Structure to design on (615 residues):
C-alpha cells in the first residue's frame, strides 16, 4: 500500500533520515516510536508530502508520490499534524466539511454523497451533539476527535496521525485510541501513527517501528519489539516487560549510565 | 471570546443571528449615511431637494451641488472604503495575522511613491496616475513576495519583509520631498488622503475595476477559508497553498491600489474595519468579507461627511480624520480584546 525506497532527508548535520525502506501493508496499524529527534514526525511529513525528500521514493499504491496531484494524494492519504490552531473559529460541522475539499470540484455545492460522508465522520467520532459548536469551545479530546473527523471525511485509505494523544488526559487518550482501532477494524483504514506512550503503542498496534537517529532500528510485532535490549539501546533505560492477555507492556526501572548516556549528552550540547 | 458565551439553539451556527444583524445593519446604515451625506454640508438640502437634484437634469443649484459634487463624492467614498476594507480583510485572512494591512506591509506606500513620482517629477503625465498607483502597489507586492520566498512564502516573513520595504519606500518618499521641495505643495493633500474634489471622472475611472475585483473577491472566499486552517492542513487537503496565496495578494493589491489612486493614502480602514467585524461576526470569510466591505464603505462615507462639514469653513482631508481617530481606537481595541489577537 505504501512503500518507501531509500528515503532520505537531511535537515542539518545532526538531524535527518537516512535510507528508510519500509513497506506499510493494507489494514495495518503501525506505530512509530523513538526518542525525541529520532525522525518519527519527519517520516510522517515526508510520506504526506509536507516536506520533500532529499533522495529516495515514496510509492502510494505503486504510484510515485511525487508524480501524483495533490488532490489525488489527499483522496488517498490523510494526516493529522501535531499542533492545531486552538483559536480557529469554525464549528465542528464546518471543519469536517473541509475534509471533502479534495473530492470536490471548483465551486459546486456539497453533493448528497459529501453530506452523507460528513454525517458519517461526525457520527463515528461521536460528535453528533457538537456539530454546531465552535471548535475552540470544546475540550482537548473533543477537539482532537473533530480534527480526526475532518481527516476521515477525506475517506483516505491511509491515515497518518502525529502524536494524536499528546496533551490529552488519560481517558481522552484512550478515547482517541479506541477510535483509531475502530476506524481500522470497521472501515479497514490503514493507520500509521507517532506515539510517545510505548504501552499504548504496544497495545493498539499490529506493528511497531522504532526509529533512532534517523534510522529504523526495530520493526516488528509488539511482542518482538518490546524487549530489554530495545529499551537499553534506544532509550538507554532498564525496563521490566510483562505479558497479559497476549498484550505486552513495560515499566521503566532505571536510567542506564555509561557510554550511551554520555553520547546522548554530547549530541544535545551540539544541537 | 464572545462566541463561547453565546447561548443559541443547537441546530444553527452560534453566530448566525449576529451575522445576519451585522450584515443587515451595516447595509442599511450605509444607505442612511449616503443619504445624510448628500443632505449635509455648507448648503443643507431636504430629501425632496436631493431627489430633484439627482433625477431632474435641469440646471438648478441642487443639481449642481448634489449631482456634480456630493453624489460622486459619496460613491467614491463608498468604493474607496469598500476596497480598502476588503483588501485588508483578504490580507489578514491569508497572512493569518490581524496586523496585515495594505498600509502596514508597504503596498499602499508603494502605490503612494509611484503616484507621488508622477505628480512631482512628471506632472505632464498626470492622467496615468491611477495606473502608476496600481503598478506601484503591484510591484511592491511582487518584491515583498519574492524577498519572502524561501521554498514557500510564510505569512510572518511576508509581514516582516513588508515592514522593511515600507521603511525603504518611506525614505525614498522623504528624499523626493526634499529634492523637489518647491513642488511638494501640490502633493500634500493627496498624501494626507482625501476625496475632496473627486467627481464622476474619478468614479468612472475605477468603478469597473472595483466591480471586477470585488467579484473576484467573492470567488476568493473559498480559498481564504482553506488557508485559514493553516498552511499544513490546507496542503494536506490537496490545496495549492502558494498559488492561492499569490493570487490573493495580487487581488488585495489591486483593491488597495485602486483606492489609493483616487483617494491618496487613507490609512486604518483596511486594518480597523475587518478587525471590528471579526470580533462580531467571527472569522468565517463568507460573512467577514461582505461585512468588512459594507463597514469600510460606511466608515469612509461617515468620516468624509464629518471631515468636510464639522470643521466649517475648513475642509479636513478624511485621511487625517481617520488616522486621528483610527490610531487611538485601534489601541483601545488592543487593550480591550487582548485575547482575540491570538489566532485570527
Amino acid at each position: 500500500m505504501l512503500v518507501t525506497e531509500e528515503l532520505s532527508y537531511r535537515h542539518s548535520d545532526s538531524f535527518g533520515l537516512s535510507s528508510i525502506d519500509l513497506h506499510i501493508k493494507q489494514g495495518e496499524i503501525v506505530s512509530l516510536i523513538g526518542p525525541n529527534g529520532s525522525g518519527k514526525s519527519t517520516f510522517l511529513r515526508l510520506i504526506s508530502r509536507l516536506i520533500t525528500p532529499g533522495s529516495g521514493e515514496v510509492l502510494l499504491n505503486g504510484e510515485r508520490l511525487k508524480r501524483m496531484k495533490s488532490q489525488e494524494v489527499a483522496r488517498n492519504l490523510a494526516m493529522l499534524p501535531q499542533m492545531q490552531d486552538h483559536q480557529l473559529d469554525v464549528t465542528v460541522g464546518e471543519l469536517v466539511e473541509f475534509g471533502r475539499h479534495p473530492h470536490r470540484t471548483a465551486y459546486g455545492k456539497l453533493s448528497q454523497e459529501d453530506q452523507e460522508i460528513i454525517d458519517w465522520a461526525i457520527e463515528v467520532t461521536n460528535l453528533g451533539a457538537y456539530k454546531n459548536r465552535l471548535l475552540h469551545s470544546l475540550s482537548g479530546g473533543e477537539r482532537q476527535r473533530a480534527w480526526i473527523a475532518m481527516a476521515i471525511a477525506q475517506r483516505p485509505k491511509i491515515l497518518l496521525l502525529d502524536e494524536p494523544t499528546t496533551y490529552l488526559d488519560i481517558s481522552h487518550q484512550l478515547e482517541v485510541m479506541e477510535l483509531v482501532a475502530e476506524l481500522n477494524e470497521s472501515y479497514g483504514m490503514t493507520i500509521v501513527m507517532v506515539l510517545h506512550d510505548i504501552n499504548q503503542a504496544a497495545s493498539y498496534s499490529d506493528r511497531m517501528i522504532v526509529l533512532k537517529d534517523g534510522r529504523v532500528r526495530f520493526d516488528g510485532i509488539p511482542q518482538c519489539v518490546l524487549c530489554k535490549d530495545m529499551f537499553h539501546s534506544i532509550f538507554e533505560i532498564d525496563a521490566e516487560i510483562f505479558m497479559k492477555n497476549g498484550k505486552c507492556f513495560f515499566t521503566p526501572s532505571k536510567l542506564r549510565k555509561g557510554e550511551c548516556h554520555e553520547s546522548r549528552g554530547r549530541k544535545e550540547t551540539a544541537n | 471570546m464572545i462566541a463561547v458565551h453565546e447561548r443559541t439553539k443547537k441546530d444553527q451556527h452560534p453566530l448566525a443571528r449576529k451575522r445576519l444583524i451585522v450584515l443587515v445593519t451595516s447595509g442599511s446604515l450605509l444607505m442612511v449615511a449616503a443619504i445624510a451625506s448628500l443632505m449635509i454640508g455648507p448648503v443643507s438640502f431636504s430629501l425632496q431637494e436631493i431627489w430633484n437634484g439627482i433625477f431632474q437634469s435641469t440646471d438648478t443649484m441642487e443639481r449642481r451641488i448634489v449631482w456634480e459634487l456630493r453624489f460622486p463624492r459619496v460613491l467614491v467614498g463608498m468604493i474607496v472604503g469598500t476596497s480598502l476594507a476588503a483588501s485588508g480583510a483578504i490580507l489578514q485572512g491569508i497572512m493569518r495575522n490581524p496586523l496585515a494591512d495594505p498600509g502596514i506591509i508597504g503596498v499602499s506606500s508603494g502605490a503612494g511613491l509611484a503616484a507621488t513620482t508622477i505628480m512631482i517629477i512628471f506632472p505632464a503625465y498626470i492622467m496615468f496616475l491611477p495606473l502608476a498607483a496600481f503598478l506601484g502597489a503591484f510591484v511592491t507586492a511582487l518584491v515583498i513576495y519574492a524577498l519572502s520566498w524561501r521554498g514557500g512564502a510564510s505569512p510572518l516573513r511576508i509581514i516582516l519583509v513588508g515592514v522593511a520595504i515600507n521603511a525603504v519606500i518611506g525614505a525614498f518618499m522623504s528624499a523626493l520631498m526634499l529634492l523637489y521641495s518647491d513642488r511638494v505643495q501640490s502633493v500634500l493633500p493627496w498624501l494626507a488622503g482625501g476625496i475632496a474634489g473627486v467627481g464622476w471622472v474619478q468614479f468612472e475611472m475605477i468603478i469597473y475595476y472595483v466591480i471586477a475585483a470585488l467579484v473576484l473577491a467573492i470567488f476568493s472566499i473559498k480559498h481564504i477559508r482553506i488557508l485559514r486552517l493553516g498552511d499544513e492542513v490546507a496542503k494536506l487537503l490537496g490545496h495549492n497553498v502558494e498559488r492561492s496565496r499569490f493570487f490573493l495578494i495580487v487581488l488585495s493589491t489591486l483593491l488597495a491600489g485602486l483606492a489609493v489612486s483616487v483617494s491618496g493614502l487613507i490609512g486604518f480602514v483596511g486594518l480597523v474595519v475587518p478587525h471590528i467585524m471579526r470580533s462580531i461576526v467571527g472569522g468565517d470569510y463568507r460573512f467577514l468579507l461582505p461585512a468588512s466591505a459594507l463597514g469600510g464603505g460606511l466608515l469612509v462615507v461617515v468620516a468624509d461627511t464629518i471631515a468636510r462639514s464639522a470643521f466649517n469653513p475648513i475642509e479636513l482631508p478624511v485621511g487625517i480624520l481617520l488616522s486621528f481617530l483610527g490610531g487611538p481606537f485601534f489601541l483601545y481595541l488592543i487593550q480591550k480584546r487582548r485575547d482575540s489577537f491570538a489566532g485570527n
Remarks:
- Chain B has one domain: 15-333.
- Chain B touches chain A at residues 1, 3-4, 8, 10-14, 219, 222, 225-226, 228-230, 232-233, 235-240, 282-284, 342-344 (CB under 8 Å).
- The domain at 15-333 of chain B is CATH 1.10.3470.10 (ABC transporter involved in vitamin B12 uptake, BtuC).
